[in-house]
């Protein structure tokens, strides 16, 4: 699938080395089709790495997608230059009159902070509310999923006894859902978090259904029965080295982190981790784009507002 992004975005060079078809704005203007419009709210500290990870996953359908990036104006990014944000990212006030086929809300390494204490919580709540009338389907990741469940359904997170980090096996509970079409009964996925969501809390909410769960890691995927929202507790978008980098970062901070489970061969940090989750990642995101978004989103996106009012 051709991903349409700004011509000078640094992620393009990385993706082109992987033979991923990236279409810049100049070429896309000459194609007479209605591309999907996807907005990515990037809350991760190293935004350039997350850009590559998500654009890679959005590249696995034959559809053309226009991708735009959003950052929080109420938060000062410490790991991404202001020049990068100014050049490639929008602020919410610049997009709140627009409509999108899909929205991806990433995770953020702040799950130990109460939601109301997060410096951009008020702005994020505005985005959550805006998305219900201006976005057809939203995919929430890790902390973004916990925050979305808390805002939309009053489901609160709970603290784990220790950080959950590693690669875990997951069981597909509802294979009839289109977002899980083509999945095996079991697949692997990375997790990296200090908090979780209780299945019993989700099951009390009629609009939601638990789709995927792990015996070791707990809930992985929750879906809204109208296909308008999905909540993934893990990080299928992670690269091979991401958990290793997080482990080394925690070591430098003096946190004495647990070794990520099922990650390093023979638990030897000198060994290269095996990549066991990218097939599931590609399938999940392509299913979301195809079945939850493309086959259901209206051609005239502005009609979303009429539906929300009605």
From TrEMBL:
NCBIfam families: metA
UniProt name for this protein: Homoserine O-acetyltransferase
Taxonomic lineage from the root: Bacteria, Bacillati, Bacillota, Bacilli, Lactobacillales
InterPro entries from the UniProt entry: Class_I_gatase-like, HST_MetA, MetA_family
Localisation per UniProt entry: Cytoplasm
Domain of life: Bacteria
Main location: cytoplasm
Enzyme Commission number(s): 2.3.1.31
Entry annotated with the keyword Transcription: no
Keyword GTP-binding listed: no
Source species: Enterococcus plantarum
GO molecular function: homoserine O-acetyltransferase activity; homoserine O-succinyltransferase activity
Cellular-component GO terms for this entry: cytoplasm
Active site: 142, 235, 237
Pathway the protein contributes to: Amino-acid biosynthesis; L-methionine biosynthesis via de novo pathway; O-acetyl-L-homoserine from L-homoserine: step 1/1
